[in-house]
């Protein structure tokens, strides 16, 4: 399936001497991972729908350095950070939105100390603010009455105390929001953080994503809602390993909202 | 008049407090072995955290049963200690229940103490049952070897004995019973001793009184060797705990300087490496031993209550990996104690012992199993951050030893070359829009 969507870059804005309202930081997963790219597109559609004047860095974007820092390579992290900050500052970026809690956390919390000061929002917070300002309408559509459980991403929830924005959006879909037994500040990790995504797990008796998927299956959801491309992958794999992929879908909040409106 | 009891009492008090002061001195010296860290910011937030988390026990009650029982024991511990003040004055001055002259209020106070003593006694028994009969999982994990298990039980026994002594002391104090002022519980114990002569009862009363105060002094000196140190250290530890968002990791200033040098087009490429600039810059990145950690992390280690709440929430531990955040804290404390003893034995200077925290205590397998999910930090009732130690030890492994697992090295090489953790070309970063 190939559909052309309009995604303006900062370079194009600059050439016209204009500033966008917000920079959409796509992130490595959002740019390269097949599953996450769908989320990226869903979010872009919502931005267009809400008439948000946005831009991306495109080929000028580079990894925030999060996985390097969590893996212990502070040097590589700071190299990435300083390079990105140079680009962002050159474009005089004020406000950033991203669909990845890892990018969100790193840019929001760790870039200021290295000279990068921006207002940073997770896409669920941003969508919530569009909703509050009346720029976006959220309807239930196909998700009305569906049982949806939200898996808290560590770097959004515990890491930055954001628990309500994604849940408010799910409620807006007139869906039945069900909570897993460990949720919010006690939510179990999907197993991908701290650079675990890129390596085999240490020996144990279970994969973390399988454990978390079991917790989700316990509340019998039709959909597991995610707010992070890494969680999305881990939970999708978990659902597959339990042979439940026909009963349970793993979807990002942005996809839920976009799909509800048949965007 | 016979002054011998007063003198004996004064000696016991001086010895008890003297030993304790010596322990505190050692404790502070060991904590100061850590690297310096600036925690002078946000004092009002810090006081608030201390008031809420240590004084107000806000994190304890996240688990309602143990939280509730702990509050009883904690309140009992603090309030009953007011009685100790009277004991000390009586002991030194040779008086008997000096505060009883304040009248009805004394009765109220002692009444409250007696009720609390019973509640504490019952709570401690429930704690003991949870540990030893119900065998709650977190008290039986691998790192709960014989000493940590015994330590926990010893404390429960000591508390039971102290509470019992307090009640017996009141029950056998016939003058106090005759006042009928505050003997709400002990009056029911007095009949147990009715068959005995007045002289014997008096001896029992004196013995209970002495054992009670000597027990408290002994307990005070047991703290340093026990997880029970948290009753003191929880306060500074919650004050110095992390106040930035949990997801935020520290940026290393030395690295910042190096990166600035590298990125600065005006920098002299032949300049000496920054390590030689001054001697206040730590040449070593990350931590392989306790001295490489900062002093708040070392304070964390001494504060750990070994409750295992962290480990019971840790995704790696839950799925059978070796990593246990509680063990990270216990190992750090054990190694720090070992270093401290080494210093004591060698006239105040550390003599290389061929050991370190890494490998000899904490294995690489444990370190690489962490997802940096912060569940341990969130769970800790006294604001300990086990994850920060894990990350600093990873810093050492990667930046000093280049010893990351191969897959992670590949990931980092990709970031370096392509700006993404996979071998995709940075120029393809926007291709998704046309797919
Ligand atoms: S941060 Fe690491 S040690 Fe702490 S709970 Fe998560 S995986 Fe376990
Ligand atoms: S680090 Fe905190 S939660 Fe973990 S055992 Fe120690 S006191 Fe308990």
From TrEMBL, chain A:
<dbReference type="GO" id="GO:0016491">
    <property type="term" value="F:oxidoreductase activity"/>
</dbReference>
<dbReference type="GO" id="GO:0051539">
    <property type="term" value="F:4 iron, 4 sulfur cluster binding"/>
</dbReference>
<dbReference type="Pfam" id="PF02754">
    <property type="entry name" value="CCG"/>
</dbReference>
<keyword id="KW-0408">Iron</keyword>
<feature type="domain" description="Cysteine-rich">
    <location>
        <begin position="148"/>
        <end position="235"/>
    </location>
</feature>
<feature type="domain" description="Cysteine-rich">
    <location>
        <begin position="22"/>
        <end position="108"/>
    </location>
</feature>
<keyword id="KW-0560">Oxidoreductase</keyword>
<keyword id="KW-0411">Iron-sulfur</keyword>
<dbReference type="GO" id="GO:0046872">
    <property type="term" value="F:metal ion binding"/>
</dbReference>
<protein>
    <submittedName>
        <fullName>(Fe-S)-binding protein</fullName>
    </submittedName>
</protein>
<keyword id="KW-0004">4Fe-4S</keyword>
<dbReference type="InterPro" id="IPR051460">
    <property type="entry name" value="HdrC_iron-sulfur_subunit"/>
</dbReference>
<keyword id="KW-0479">Metal-binding</keyword>
<dbReference type="InterPro" id="IPR004017">
    <property type="entry name" value="Cys_rich_dom"/>
</dbReference>
<dbReference type="GO" id="GO:0005886">
    <property type="term" value="C:plasma membrane"/>
</dbReference>
UniProtKB/TrEMBL annotation, chain B:
<keyword id="KW-1133">Transmembrane helix</keyword>
<keyword id="KW-0408">Iron</keyword>
<feature type="domain" description="4Fe-4S ferredoxin-type">
    <location>
        <begin position="360"/>
        <end position="392"/>
    </location>
</feature>
<feature type="domain" description="4Fe-4S ferredoxin-type">
    <location>
        <begin position="295"/>
        <end position="326"/>
    </location>
</feature>
<feature type="transmembrane region" description="Helical">
    <location>
        <begin position="68"/>
        <end position="93"/>
    </location>
</feature>
<keyword id="KW-0472">Membrane</keyword>
<keyword id="KW-0411">Iron-sulfur</keyword>
<dbReference type="InterPro" id="IPR036197">
    <property type="entry name" value="NarG-like_sf"/>
</dbReference>
<feature type="transmembrane region" description="Helical">
    <location>
        <begin position="154"/>
        <end position="172"/>
    </location>
</feature>
<dbReference type="InterPro" id="IPR017900">
    <property type="entry name" value="4Fe4S_Fe_S_CS"/>
</dbReference>
<dbReference type="GO" id="GO:0005886">
    <property type="term" value="C:plasma membrane"/>
</dbReference>
<protein>
    <submittedName>
        <fullName>(Fe-S)-binding protein</fullName>
    </submittedName>
</protein>
<keyword id="KW-0812">Transmembrane</keyword>
<feature type="transmembrane region" description="Helical">
    <location>
        <begin position="105"/>
        <end position="129"/>
    </location>
</feature>
<keyword id="KW-0004">4Fe-4S</keyword>
<dbReference type="InterPro" id="IPR009051">
    <property type="entry name" value="Helical_ferredxn"/>
</dbReference>
<dbReference type="GO" id="GO:0016491">
    <property type="term" value="F:oxidoreductase activity"/>
</dbReference>
<dbReference type="InterPro" id="IPR017896">
    <property type="entry name" value="4Fe4S_Fe-S-bd"/>
</dbReference>
<dbReference type="Pfam" id="PF13187">
    <property type="entry name" value="Fer4_9"/>
</dbReference>
<dbReference type="GO" id="GO:0051539">
    <property type="term" value="F:4 iron, 4 sulfur cluster binding"/>
</dbReference>
<keyword id="KW-0560">Oxidoreductase</keyword>
<feature type="transmembrane region" description="Helical">
    <location>
        <begin position="6"/>
        <end position="24"/>
    </location>
</feature>
